[in-house]
Design brief:
Shape: elongated
Strand order of the largest sheet: 6-7-5-10-11
Number of strands: 11
Radius of gyration: 25 Å
Order of helices and strands: EHEHHHEHEHEHEHHEEEHEHHHHHEH
Strand content: 5-15%
Distance between the termini: 35 Å
Structural class: alpha/beta
Largest sheet: 5 strands, parallel
Length: about 325
């Protein structure tokens, strides 16, 4: 969108942190408290007084703002500047930056227009095949193999920094906001060939604390689904490899959060198993709950769009072979 030109977000730090154009740099016209102050003056005394109050805040910091812009622009001496609506804040900062000879472009409609474009673009995603399956069936690793083989894959859990279960946050970076998740998703979709199929992992409406856009969830629920199905004995080694090395305290905390869903007796037994080093026993207890939940979710889908792939393989390359074979049949 910026054709290699650095993108400057002049909104407040809080606005930028909530959601921003990926790769943009925040050179804020106002701090969080200053923005609130100017807004209060605008409501009480009108636009002119708000402008004067804003100048009171910005005056002492103008040199610092300009130095940041000069450094960011570099030898190209060009910047794409935006605020929320493409109004006074971005125009004022573009004027300031231009004093140092920087050629500034304004994002028409600002971040608000960008967000509308993001959601509209996500809603146009097509040729989707959803890869689902029981917990521990190897969905994520299979998707990685598919990506290595040149298939188009959207890694929702990677974008959300979460594995999608009650245990999904353990050892993962801080999750982005739901708004920023959609922005990151859009930029991944923008790099895809719309005429080729796209594999996406089956997810619920939320991945940890991140809620995916309604348009994406609808696409996932109404697309072809390949579900990897295998018995617990086949899945437990993979889960032991992933979760057996994690701190026991973190596993106990995660089980405590789903205590009501597991049932008090099952939760207590699982916690006891973890504390005594019998992680596999705890996994079996939790799997019984997740398997029941997933099978119930499958029953709510259109059966004509669901293809269960029974497999006892733990090799992601073999799983990828079977998924591709089935996907080719689905697409005819």
């Amino acid at each position: 969108m910026s054709e290699g030109i650095p993108v400057v977000d002049v909104r407040s730090p809080a606005e930028h942190e909530k959601g921003c154009i990926p790769g943009s740099v925040n050179i804020a016209l106002f701090s969080n408290s200053q923005r609130q102050d100017v807004g209060t003056v605008f409501k009480k005394a009108g636009n002119r007084e708000a402008i004067l109050r804003g100048l009171d805040h910005v005056g002492p910091s103008m040199a610092g703002l300009l130095r940041q812009a000069i450094e960011l622009a570099g030898p190209g001496e060009k910047l794409l500047v935006h605020c929320w609506r493409g109004g006074m804040r971005s125009s004022s900062m573009a004027w300031l930056f231009s004093l140092a000879g920087i050629e500034c472009y304004l994002l028409e409609g600002g971040y608000r227009a960008y967000r509308n474009h993001v959601l509209d673009s996500i809603g146009r995603l097509k040729n989707v095949i959803v890869l689902g399956g029981l917990t521990g069936s190897g969905k994520t690793d299979t998707l990685k193999v598919l990506a290595d083989r040149g298939e188009q894959v959207i890694d929702l859990e990677g974008l959300a920094n979460h594995r999608g279960s009650a245990f999904g946050a353990i050892g993962m970076p801080v999750q982005p906001s739901s708004e920023q998740f959609a922005n990151l998703l859009y930029h991944q979709i923008a790099g895809l060939d719309p005429e080729k199929r796209v594999f996406i992992e089956d997810e619920s409406h939320n991945i940890g604390s991140v809620f995916m856009p309604d348009v994406l969830y609808s696409i996932i629920r109404n697309s072809w689904l390949i579900a990897l199905m295998s018995d617990a004995d086949n899945r437990i080694p993979r889960l032991m490899k992933e979760y057996g090395v994690m701190p026991g305290e973190s596993l106990v905390d995660s089980i405590s959060r789903i205590r009501k869903r597991l049932g008090g007796q099952n939760a207590d037994q699982a916690i006891k198993s973890i504390k005594t080093g019998h992680i596999e026993d705890a996994i079996r207890i939790v799997l019984a709950y997740y398997d029941k939940t997933y099978r119930f979710g499958l029953s709510k889908r259109d059966s004509n769009t669901v293809f269960e792939l029974e497999t006892d393989s733990r090799d992601e390359n073999i799983l990828a072979d079977k998924v591709l074979e089935l996907a080719n049949k689905i697409r005819g």
